[in-house]
Design goal:
By secondary structure, the protein is α/β, with parallel strands linked by helices. The chain contains 28 helices and 23 strands. Strand 2, helix 2 and strand 3 form a beta-alpha-beta unit. The chain folds into four domains: 180 residues, 3-Layer(aba) Sandwich (Rossmann fold), CATH 3.40.50.2000; 163 residues, 3-Layer(aba) Sandwich (Rossmann fold), CATH 3.40.50; 242 residues, Spore Coat Polysaccharide Biosynthesis Protein SpsA, Chain A, CATH 3.90.550; 100 residues, no CATH class.
Length: 746
């Protein structure tokens, strides 16, 4: 089978040293090439064609030559061979091409990469500082905005750089399925230099983009004079960027302490050596790549609120935020003179930004968006190939199997509204605290029941349950050890409420946890809606570096930093132990596969619930996936806490066991989306590439953990530790996958 072909159309040929958007496009072209696509680039402007066109051709990317007319070049490139995908940069360049490509290549999926929302940036420019009165936006603004939204609506998919702009586009076009967040990304090494070894301030921008010149005027006219000649003599401002205007040159010449650098092929050497990066943007939209570059190299930044928009960071997360000239100047002065503050801010810079803006994150999100749109019909988001018919796998027993021990407790009502299912084995002390928290629930008296499934415990679990049966509507179901999936099925079989909440035996519930889950289901009564609650570490625990990493940074255990309160997510977010769903749907879909003894049983069951809905609620499975599939609503206020600490060794073992379950999951589905989630594609080759290095890297983790535990907080060492955490956890998952593939899973 020949490789799929993509057509990339933009103003300039993708070139990483020109401006932020061209750098972004260059990265996306590389992602397509690495994924096996044939790529052709067509640019409106010939600028950079000689050098960068030659480089692209050497990398196997076709580049349109001649530049007689942009539309003619696009037509010629599209007609040379069928294109599965056309990636169109910016709405105004895309507008005429949408009509052209729909006419000459109707099968091509059209993806508009917004870069930023032009109408948002322009509205802010026109309204910033203006008096509060009517008629400030001219008629041509409305016309341009209507055209921009029209382009997004006409496309098969729209890419945005932030979740905030994705939500805005989705609201305007009325279709969240066609909007995908693909952030800007950078893979830059951290600077080895500490504060004492750095000198100067740094501002970078393409001055063809008006907000950059406005920002520099604000900086030179209102901020730098407040710093005084002494600080500026020690730390001059270096200004780099392409397309210098006469106004920028005159401004630099008239301002003391400013050194105009102009265009540079690479900005990394400046970010690595300067003391502070400056981002005094006053209006704009999208996200600022210069902030990613600064924080990725570990360089603290002073920014305005507009400058950090779209990032999951706040004041102090590698950046100090100030919007008025005095506050901005004070923040700059503090970072120039206070080494302790500088080190503290710098220490949080890299880890915060790379969790959402590394090259790997961008690649995965972009290719996921491409995979989604290329499986859909033009402008519809409807899956063209019906999902495979769900295979019957009745896992939940209609009646509890013979030999199952069942001790019904007192029920407050004949028909509770929510059943809490707790699978457990040999965790009596932890279970005791869990049941205590459920006995203290508020505003749900008579509305709930608790079902403890004792999966073959040999400790004091039975005694703990007997004590709490006097104070809780508690039922105990016991069976020989069979694993978490079988235990959950027994709990669902015993449950009598229409809503089932799965709760971990090492968690404690906030007093309103059950009330929050019930309220969420009342707001979302459809059978297809599940609810995901929020889990924190219990305050009494010492949150170690590895515990913080797996929950807040690497998000290996939960991924709450990426979720929006009230947001709607798919089956991949039905996280066991903190999610509730309609019992009827779970039973209809077959419940949990008994083969899963640890991990993935929740996500696999959620996937089957989605598949069951798609098949049974839509003839042939042709309805949009989010119209009939499982929807998981995140309620940040439905809180519970983990009361058991974990160590690095604990989590390595967990990752290896998780790898086994992911291999099992991938083995019961032919859906490539499942294989991608499970990480089983090419696992043997990837494991062989890391196997020999794993022991040495584990040993290095232990060395660095000892340093951090002893109070040493060198930012470079901590960043190294975090990289090694992610590397080793991924390696142990691969080990589990490959072991299961070679020897089977028990």
């Amino acid at each position: 089978m020949s490789a799929p072909r993509a057509l990339v159309c933009s103003h300039y040929i993708p070139q990483p040293d020109l401006d932020s958007y061209s750098r972004r496009l260059h990265h996306l072209v590389g992602c397509l090439r690495d994924a096996g696509w044939e790529v052709s680039c067509v640019a409106r402007s010939p600028r950079g064609e000689e050098l960068h066109g030659r480089r692209l051709r050497a990398a196997g990317v076709a580049v349109a030559a001649g530049f007689a007319g942009h539309a003619d070049n696009v037509r010629r490139a599209a007609l040379e061979a069928p294109c599965a995908l056309a990636l169109l940069g910016f709405w105004n360049f895309a507008e005429p091409l949408v009509r052209l490509l729909r006419e000459i290549s109707p099968a091509t999926r059209l993806v508009v990469d917004s870069g930023d929302l032009h109408f948002l940036r322009e509205a802010r420019r026109l309204l910033r500082g203006a008096p509060r009165s009517l008629d400030l936006l001219p008629p041509d603004f409305g016309t341009a905005m209507a055209r921009e939204i029209g382009v997004y609506h006409a496309a098969d998919a729209v890419l945005t750089v932030s979740a905030k702009e994705a939500d805005l586009v989705a609201d305007l076009i009325g279709d969240r399925r066609r909007v995908h967040v693909v952030p800007d990304g950078e893979d830059l090494a951290p600077s080895p230099l500490g504060p004492a070894e750095r000198r100067g301030l740094f501002f970078v921008g393409n001055f063809e983009h008006p907000p950059n010149e406005e920002a520099l005027r604000f900086l030179c006219g209102a901020v730098l004079p407040r710093l005084g000649p002494g600080l500026l003599s020690a730390h001059p401002l270096f200004v780099a960027g392409s397309n210098l205007t006469d106004g920028v040159r005159a401004l630099a010449a008239a301002t003391g302490g400013v050194r105009l650098v102009g265009w540079v092929p690479r900005v990394e050497p400046y970010f690595e050596r300067v003391r502070v990066s400056l981002l005094p943007v006053l209006h704009g939209a999208g996200t600022k790549r210069k902030l990613i570059q600064a924080l990725a190299t570990g360089t603290p930044t002073v920014s305005t609120t507009v400058g950090i928009e779209g990032f999951a960071i706040g004041d102090g997360d590698g950046v100090l935020v100030a919007d008025d000239p005095l506050s901005f100047a004070e923040a700059v002065a503090r970072l120039l003179t206070d080494d302790v503050l500088w080190t503290s801010v710098a220490g949080r810079a890299r880890e915060r930004v790379l969790r959402d803006h590394s090259g790997a994150v961008v690649r995965d999100r972009f290719l996921a968006a491409v995979a989604a749109v290329c499986g859909a019909g033009p402008g519809t988001g409807v899956v063209a190939v019906p999902p495979e018919r769900p295979v019957a796998d009745p896992a939940i027993p209609v009646e509890l199997p013979a030999g199952t021990m069942r001790r019904p407790g007192p029920r407050a009502t004949e028909r509770p509204e929510i059943s809490v299912v707790i699978p457990t084995r040999d965790r009596a002390a932890l279970l005791d605290e869990s049941l205590a928290s459920l006995a203290a629930q508020e505003d749900v008296a008579g509305c709930y029941e608790v079902i403890v499934v004792d999966d073959g415990s040999t400790d004091e679990t039975a005694a703990v349950c007997r004590r709490w049966a006097e104070r809780l509507p508690l039922e105990v179901v016991g069976s020989p050890p069979a694993g978490i999936a079988a235990a959950k099925n027994l709990g669902v079989a015993a449950a009598s409420a229409p809503i089932v909440l799965f709760f971990d035996d090492d968690d404690v519930a906030a007093p309103d946890l059950l009330a929050r889950h019930l309220a969420a289901h009342r707001r979302h009564p459809l059978e297809q809606v599940a609810v995901l609650g929020h889990t924190d570490w219990a305050p009494r625990l010492e949150v170690t570096e590895v515990m913080r990493y797996v929950t807040e940074i690497g998000c290996y255990l939960f991924g709450y930093p990426h979720l929006r309160d009230g947001g709607r997510y798919d089956w991949r977010f039905f996280w066991g132990g903190r999610s509730s769903c309609k019992r009827s749907l779970l039973v209809a879909a077959g419940g949990f596969r008994r083969m899963f003894t640890f991990g993935s049983e929740d996500i696999e069951a959620a996937y089957r619930m989605s598949r069951w809905l798609a098949w049974h609620r839509s003839p042939g499975g042709t309805a949009p996936a989010d119209a009939v599939g499982l929807v998981v609503v995140y309620d940040r206020g439905a809180r519970q806490q983990v009361i058991r600490a974990l160590t690095y060794d604990d989590f390595c073992r967990r990752c290896e066991r998780q790898g086994v379950s992911q291999w099992q999951f991938a083995g019961v589905s032919t859906d490539p989306v499942v294989a991608e989630w499970c990480g089983t594609v090419d696992a043997v080759r990837r494991w062989e590439a890391v196997r020999d290095e794993l022991p040495g890297r584990v040993a290095r983790v232990r060395e660095l953990e000892a340093e951090v535990g002893a109070g040493h907080v060198d930012p470079a060492r901590r960043a190294e530790l975090h990289r090694l955490y992610g590397w080793t956890f991924d390696a142990f998952k691969l080990k589990g996958i490959v072991t299961a593939a070679e020897h089977g899973a028990s």
